[in-house]
Hints:
By secondary structure, the chain is α/β, with parallel strands linked by helices. It has a single domain, classed as Rossmann fold, CATH 3.40.50. The chain is built from ten helices and seven strands. The protein has helices spanning 3-7, 71-83, 96-107, 136-148, 150-162, 169-179, 183-195, 222-231, 248-251, 253-265; strands at residues 11-14, 19-23, 45-48, 89-94, 112-118, 209-216, 236-244. It has a seven-stranded mixed β-sheet with strand order 1-3-2-4-5-6-7, with helices on both faces. Helix 3 (96-107) links the parallel strand 4 (89-94) and strand 5 (112-118). Helix 2 crosses helix 3 and helix 4 runs antiparallel to helix 7. The chain is globular and about 50 Å long. The N and C termini lie far apart (43 Å).
Amino acid sequence: MGIVEEAHNVRIVGKGNEIVILAHGFGTDQSVWKHLVPHLVDDYQVILYDNMGAGTTNPDYFDFERYYTIDGFVYDLLAILQELQVQSCIFVGHSLSAMVGLLASISHPHLFTKLILVSASPRFLNDSEYFGGFQQEDLTQLYDGIRSNYKAWCSGFAPLVIGGDMDSVAVQEFSRTLFNMRPDIALSLAQTIFQFDMRPILCHVTVPCHIIQSTKDLAAPVVVAEYLQQNLGGKTIVEVMPTEGHLPQLSSPDIVVPVLLNHIRHNLAEDK
């Protein structure tokens, strides 16, 4: 196993000619896809990896300067694809990784047959004539919470993001992976993610995009999915699911897994 594979805990499962990459968002790790993977392994080669900074990665490898912008994650994804000699893939990215996939596809469109974006947002911060879901004071409070008492912040943040029952298995799972992160790394990543503005790059994306969205999502409202559809440069489709929360693949797998499988198998190029 190469250095890149080892650093990101790369795991390859399944068999098939087509490759599916599963990439997770902030506060989780590759385990967030555990309900989807068993349904893919008979037909696809599935590549999973952990973003640097996840609790499952070595915190000593985390370079604060590299991940000050989202570009650090883009370089990581491209390095993984190069090390594994991936020529073409279906990329499924959740939240942060949805934007990572979009950016990677701009410079290397030949590597991606399509991008499936789950709970994606190009900007979380509200702006004039743009609703991202957060005011700056909301984010300042969020950062202060991480700084003052990380464990308490995790306990409050997890149910808000998941939505629904505070005692649910999904909330407990997200709380676990969130708390596994080192607090200073979590703060740095939160600032990188919640302050980014990917809107200017959307027009440069030419790879077909499938946008998968919860009806109710605190972090990525439905209007954001509509904004993406209107501004992405390539062919785009949106599906709003009857689910709640920012991690529907974890909290509502019975609804989300069939939707994801349909979009993985569906070719936008075949649409009239």
